[in-house]
UniProtKB/TrEMBL annotation:
Superkingdom of origin: Bacteria
One MF annotation (Gene Ontology) recorded for this entry: cyclic-guanylate-specific phosphodiesterase activity
Segments passing through the bilayer: none
Entire-sequence positions represented here: 171 to 455 of 455
Annotated protein name in UniProt: Diguanylate cyclase (GGDEF) domain protein
Domain EAL: 24-279
Organism the protein comes from: Anaerostipes caccae (strain DSM 14662 / CCUG 47493 / JCM 13470 / NCIMB 13811 / L1-92)
């Protein structure tokens, strides 16, 4: 995965920028075709409840599996599609894929688990965007509480948009969706958001866990855990990669974790195998 270039208006022209522009042109041109051919796939990453090491849900993360270019990571196309609005179409596609998957599990009489879907801030430009989501929820017969939308602080940056986001969250709840604040704690107004917006879950950004032996980091993490408990909001620690991080979080009574320590994002088939193995062998106990 590569960094984007050329977003700084003061930077001089760089050969990398020409390559970047060429890539962006190609990605834009391929988009519709790839949606039609279902070249976008969802990967699922488990969220694990620390108290009993059971599966508490999964996050759907999009991957672009291009027949010629191979796997393209979200960081290569999400920022581009956020700029030109294509992200709304892609998010809806990811969401419908998740609905279809849950629907299939219902038909096969398999157990259900909640799945989180990332929503770009771009959706909040159109007041009616939730209608389509709720129609699909009904079409696929998805029970309430099975889908959670993850919003980042970017959705809350625009003052004019804030009222709308607040109403959207209310409406999400009325329609049976849950709502999570993603990458929590790294923006400038994280705590104020908790006061003003009625979210169900916060996902504490992985930056906090990079150096967990640092006493200050520990105080901040346990502080966030305490705040979330007192507010009655669920908390997920993101990007947990080591046993040490996991053990410390257990001591802090952290509710849920997500990260490579338990599993990378997996294809649906891989995820189901992972889930069965975990349940049968209790591999993490
Ligand atoms: P995110 O929603 O915060 O998702 C978590 C990202 O962290 C994922 O990257 C995941 O693969 C990665 N991750 C998980 N565990 C670990 C870990 O232990 N260590 C490290 N270093 N990384 C870990 P991914 O899949 O590349 O996605 C990046 C971002 O792209 C996501 O961040 C999300 O903001 C966005 N994204 C992904 N899929 C979608 C989508 O369908 N719609 C929208 N709007 N955005 C999406
Ligand atoms: Mg997310
Ligand atoms: Mg996140
Ligand atoms: Mg992130």
């Amino acid at each position: 995965c590569r960094q984007r270039h050329g977003t700084d208006p003061c930077s001089f022209f760089h050969p990398e920028m020409a390559k970047q522009m060429q890539l962006e042109y190609e990605l834009n041109t391929m988009f519709e075709d790839s949606i039609k051919k279902r070249d976008f796939q969802i990967y699922l990453q488990p969220k694990v409840r620390l108290a009993d090491l059971t599966l508490s849900g999964a996050e759907a993360l999009v991957r672009w599996i291009h027949p010629d270019k191979g796997m393209i990571c979200p960081s290569d196309f999400i920022p581009l599609f956020e700029e030109n609005g294509k992200i709304c179409r892609l998010d809806l596609y990811v969401y419908e894929t998740v609905c279809a998957y849950l629907h299939k599990r219902i038909e096969q009489q398999k157990d259900l688990f909640p799945i989180s879907v990332n929503l770009s801030r771009a959706h909040f430009k159109d007041l009616n965007f939730l209608r389509k989501f709720s129609e699909l929820k009904a079409k696929y017969g998805i029970p309430d509480g099975m889908i959670e939308f993850e919003l980042t602080e970017y959705s809350f940056l625009d003052k004019q948009q804030r009222e709308m986001v607040k109403n959207c969250i209310k409406q999400m709840h009325r329609l049976g969706f849950h709502c999570a604040l993603d990458d929590f704690g790294v923006g400038y107004s994280a705590l104020a958001l908790l006061k003003d917006f009625d979210v169900d879950t916060i996902k504490l950004d992985r930056q906090f866990f990079v150096d967990m032996t640092n006493p200050k980091a520990q105080t901040i993490i346990s502080g966030f855990i305490e705040i979330s408990e007192k507010l009655g909001i669920h908390l997920v620690a993101e990007g947990i990669e080591t046993k040490e991080q996991m053990e410390l979080l257990k001591q802090f009574h952290c509710e849920m974790v997500q990260g490579y320590y338990f599993s990378k994002p997996l294809t649906i088939d891989e995820f189901e195998k992972w889930k069965d193995t975990m349940q049968k062998q209790k591999v993490f106990k």
